[in-house]
Amino acid sequence: MSDPAITIIGAGAIGSFLATRLAEAGLATTLVARGARLEQLRARAPALCGGAKGHRGRIDPAPRATGPADILFLCVKAHALREALAANGAANGPGTTVVPLVNGIPFWHFADRPEGERSVPVIDPEGAILAAAGPHAVLGCVTYIAAELTGDGDVLSPTAPRLALGPARAGGPDGRAVAALAARAGIDVERPRDIRSAVWHKLAINLATNPLSALTDTSVGEIAANAELLAIAADIAAEVRALAAAYGFDTGLSAEGLAETMAAANDFSTSMRQDARAGRPLELGAICHAPLALAARAGVAMPVTRSIVHLLAASAPGKVRPAPAPNLEREVA
């Protein structure tokens, strides 16, 4: 049986990590990139710092997808998904499994609900992203991969990679084919009973660390080592747990578990801190604004989270101006 056709949209840290691991496993992969990153990839395939043994497979950098993929990985930020899918519609064929590797509340979170109830505030308020991806084609995925791009375009990933996979709705892809690929690439896979519980667990970690790290320009390990910052992170995680409960889920993350997870990250910089330092728009929508909109909809107070997010939006490190915040009142009306 031949290997599946694989396309990865997005050549940032996560997309480049995944492409490199798949190449090392002998799997040919099309990696869609733009601008200077595309030229960098055309000049030299990225190396995986600390793990690469040489590339046995092939990475094909391209400005856009030109044909249907068996497996389509979406590795762009949530605010770029709609444009990325529109520009690469050729990759999403009738038999394609779409795997979004995104942070925060995903556009597919309510895909198992009746039509008309599937939109996600802030991220996909009209349901356009879910419609473009195809509710029947989406495999829910939660990513536990710590990765950074070096100045040379290589990938630094200090921890063991892991994915959680599960159907976004009944009758959707079950994840076995993607799990087999991940295993070949040395990526551990979990198959939780409900993928959305894994979403909320990861959101609690992301929301407790990303805005705070960008606001204070600190690594996750530095937050863990600072009693005052760690207390703020724990308060945010507790607020996310209350929000998850309002929607019928449990983050499964205690204050002690959060502290241990953060301490283990050492000097790792969150994606939001990386973006702030590079002058890129911050990923506030999926990680911050969507949860706050869901909280407003459910009547859940998140005062600590809201304060940190407002402070970050007002003054990001390095005078970075985040992407415009949505009108939460309008989103939840």
From TrEMBL:
It comes from the Bacteria. Keywords: Pantothenate biosynthesis. It catalyses: (R)-pantoate + NADP(+) = 2-dehydropantoate + NADPH + H(+). Residues 6-166 form the Ketopantoate reductase N-terminal domain. Residues 194-314 form the Ketopantoate reductase C-terminal domain. Gene3D superfamilies: N-(1-d-carboxylethyl)-l-norvaline Dehydrogenase, domain 2, NAD(P)-binding Rossmann-like Domain. It is an enzyme of class 1 (oxidoreductase). PANTHER family: 2-DEHYDROPANTOATE 2-REDUCTASE (PTHR21708:SF26), PROBABLE 2-DEHYDROPANTOATE 2-REDUCTASE (PTHR21708). This is 2-dehydropantoate 2-reductase.
